[in-house]
Amino acid sequence: MAGTALPSLGRVRLSDLRANEGLPSDSYKNSVCTLSQSLAQYSAAIIQFPTSEGALLRSGLESARLFFHQRSYDAPEMVPTNDTREWCRTSGYYADPQLWQETYDFRPGLTPTEPTNTMELPPPGLPDIFALFGRAAREILDAISFSLNLRSFPFTEILDNVPLRNREISSSVLSVCCHSRPSFEGGQHHLTTEDDGQFMYPEHDHQLDKSLITLVKSDRAGLHIRDIHGRWVLVDGDLGPQEAVVYPGLALYQATASYVSPAVHRTEVNNLQGNMYGRSSLSFKLMPRSMASLSCSEMRAAGHGVEAQFQLPVSVDDFMQRPHPADQLFTRQSFQTYTFPQAQDGSLKPLLKRRKTNARCKPLPPSKRLRLEAQRVLKERVQEIADKKGIKLRFCNLKECESHLQSLDSPCETIRMEIGWPPGVPFVHPHDLPNKAKRCFLEAYEPGWTSSQDMELSLNEPGQTSQHSINHTLANSNFFNSLPAYTDASE
After folding, report:
1. What's CA 143's distance to the chain center, in Å?
2. How far is CA 334 from the centre of its chain?
3. Which domain of life is it from (predicted)?
């Protein structure tokens, strides 16, 4: 269900996005709702770091200004290469005269930080800023996962180790950038001039980051992102000392089957007369590991529809080397998120009380509640087996299935054979099966499942025990272990 439209870019405190054990707090739910809605409307949001971190961000921008001010531009040696195979190996200083931009990439494990190293030293403070942005990006990513109803930390397997192991190189990168420095020669003639004296990059230079999440902190306004209506919005026009802009990238778009759209962005270079430093910014890109794969299995497990182009896992290294034109991306009409509307006093308690009252008016019968829960769990188990084997399932409806039961060449029997379903164990479809059959099936591979449910949902009469359920449990308690072993080729 889509939330209410936001009048401007959403602002969220990072401390409110930190998940804790137990039930989510009101501030967490409200912050997740604001974040997801802002990403849906503007493809960006503003993250407010703790006040104590503002000094680190300010010092990082100051050291960036001084670093670039002391450099000289050497055109033949410092122009970046366009080799996409080096996407996870960039480090050090380079310049792009066409964009009138200088960049220093800091990548732990590759960029030296000690004076004894022969490579040039980075601007001071980058390791601390890298750690700060890295923690924030992971917390934001987990908040987006919560809004999509995914399991906790679903992207852990495709991210770098924390901390990095010996000889590992970080996939994520912190880029220190400088735009339109007056002493930087050779780039100005590539830009177009607007009537108000501002420099804009040409239309074909609109960029799409291939990251999962990008965090940007700038000392001057200039970052524009295209919103859901195709309008360009200035997103860093009124950033506070401890605020940064966050926007999603192409890797998150792929991993969520297009449910989170990537931000299309460009940089505006104001006429900085009298400014000797240009526009400086810190840009952190949370990237997946090059040896990992982008899969939408978590989206399917959460019940989201996955289009055909996202069905198969994609190698991260291959994904990063492909072109991804913005006009060829699959877009959805809305960003499906959970919303938590508030009462007028800002509290959720009256709303929860009203929902509880409504639930008492029309309670579901215990057998119905158990049947729905069993149906959901069983469907997930079948889907998990099929996903691991790369089998695309097509579940038949109840009427079709009745005619398939007696046929050896039916779709049901074909799927059983492909999956390697154990003989004698009832196959599960999303349509309703008898309640006792479902409970026995669950007890067969997850003993105690029924007792873990609310006692009022039990199908047995008080004081009675289902001997059939006990026998079935003893006979098939480990039937999933009898399935053929499967090894993911990507591992």
Report:
1. 9
2. 16
3. Eukaryota
